[in-house]
Amino acid sequence: MNKFIVCLLLWLLSACTTMPQEQIEQGFKLEFGHISEVDGAYVINPNLKIISKDGVPLNRFGVRIENLDKLSYSLGYYIFKFNDVTGTYELFTTDGYWIIKPPVNVNYEAILFDDKKRFYPGSYQFVIIVAEEILQTIAFEVVSAEG
């Protein structure tokens, strides 16, 4: 029953959060897309379509999160993958919980990504957790580079 409630909650949240542009949510600025490095700083190029070859994304991708109120917060994430057979999202990977605060992080920001798993074509959800609650769910697609 709990699994059903979690899946229903994730589905409802994802229906409202598929926009690739920068979003402000409960005092947090969120950006999802390709991650690149420019002059030593990470930059997010908004994109909800991730291209992979043999399960390896051609570009690093993830979420940039910043607390605009400049308050410390705990942070983590889950990534779910849609299972075509069962018709539900299933846990793919998870990581966190970090405490984001000075002096280690004076900008109250973090970049969330997973570079350990293989991302094969399909529908995914990136669930951002702040203070042990869902802050945002972002739906994205992984497509094959082979076409």
What attributes does this structure have?
single chain, 147 residues, mainly beta, six-stranded mixed beta sheet, five-stranded antiparallel beta sheet, 1 helix, 11 strands
DSSP summary, beta strand count: 11
Order of strands in the sheet with most strands: 5-4-11-10-7-8
Q: Mind telling me the C-alpha Rg?
A: 15 Å
Shape: globular
Helix tally equals 1
Structural class: mainly beta
Distance between the termini: 39 Å
Average pLDDT, all residues: 86
Query: Strand percentage, roughly?
Result: over 45%
SSE pattern, N- to C-terminal: HEEEEEEEEEEE
User: Roughly what percent helix?
Assistant: under 10%
- Uncertain runs with pLDDT below 50, 5 residues or more? 1-19
Largest sheet: 6 strands, mixed
General description of the model:
Helix content is 10%, strand content 56%. It is mainly beta and 147 residues long. The strands form 2 sheets. A 6-stranded mixed sheet has the order 5-4-11-10-7-8. Strands 1, 2, 3, 6 and 9 form a 5-stranded antiparallel sheet that branches.
Task: Briefly characterize the structure.
With 147 residues, the protein is mostly beta strands.
List the helices and strands and how they pair.
Layout: H1 2-15, E1 23-25, E2 28-38, E3 41-46, E4 49-53, E5 56-57, E6 61-67, E7 73-83, E8 88-100, E9 109-112, E10 122-130, E11 133-144
